[in-house]
Structure formats: C-alpha cells, structure tokens
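Table 4 source record.
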Amino acid sequence: MKRPSLGSLLLGLIPFIGGCLSVPLWDRVDPMVFGVPFNFFWLVCWLFLTPLCLWGAYRLDPPPSETPSERGDAQ
C-alpha cells in the first residue's frame, strides 16, 4: 500500500481544522447569517465543504498501479 501525497493529507485536514480547531474564532452568536447564528452557519457550511475537500484529496492521489506480483498472485 502506498502512502498518500502531502497535498491529499492537507486537503483532508482542512475540514478538521475548519470545524474543530477554529472554534475560538467563530464562537459567537451575534452575527446572524441567513437568520441563524454564525456558529451554526459555520458548522453547516463545513458539512457541505468536507465532501469537496475529500473529493479533491481523492483526485490528487494517482490510482494504485497493481501488477500481479504486487497482488501476490504471481506464478
């Protein structure tokens, strides 16, 4: 099994950082966005952005090149 590329790892970390580690930056109720508190809006946005980031990480990694010897069924 080959290791993922650095770019795909970074794209995979973006949702975690945006949703979990940025709490002190957006932990406010006052600014309302589309009628909901900003902190709720921020988390809902990450629900939609996470699949996009993970799709980008998937697209960055080239497909595995399997040869019969790598699969273990070489004769």
